[in-house]
Amino acid sequence: MIKVAILAINNTVSGCLDQYISIIGKKYYIDFDIDVFVKIEEMLRVIDKEKNYYDIIGLDTKMKASMDIEFIKMIRNINEKVIIIFLADQINEIKICLEIQPFLLLNKPFNQKDVEKNILIAYKKLMKTPAFFEYKFNRCFFKISLKDIIYYESDRKTIFINTIYGVEKIYGKKLDDIEEKLKECKITFLRIHKSILVNFLFVTKIVNNPG
Asked: Structure pTM?
């Protein structure tokens, strides 16, 4: 799951971006969890109360508080890998932007093509963050990088983990349990068959079966 926060000066800006990101999620099978805020205090309250963090944060440059250096530092202290996207008409405070070093600038008014391009760039950046599938077998602990796993396949009580390096096996596990566990990670795995779970990073084409 990719957690997204949008902090914008009005609901028109945030609502438009929220809608576009939701469309992108459905199109590319990316699980986005989007929170929308119109006040910086609301975002801080959620972060503090739920010990929450976001992977991608869109900040409206018309909201001066969103460009405050101390606010940005606090966000990055919680998650140093957070991707910050400025939502801008035009950037006048170049000095502040250089200090904050946002990952991307997204110009208003938004259009679907530009939002999709920038969100996918941010998503690919997030995918470079190491994440692992961990399991135990015969009292030994194993972990495999999720980006190296092509697909899982179940056969009776055995799970075959097909990776770019070869095949690993897990005994006595259900594919349903693995699928549920993988929902916590940022990489999308698609259940294309009752016995097969595929890493979306290795999918090159999706065809709808009319039958």
From this structure: 0.76
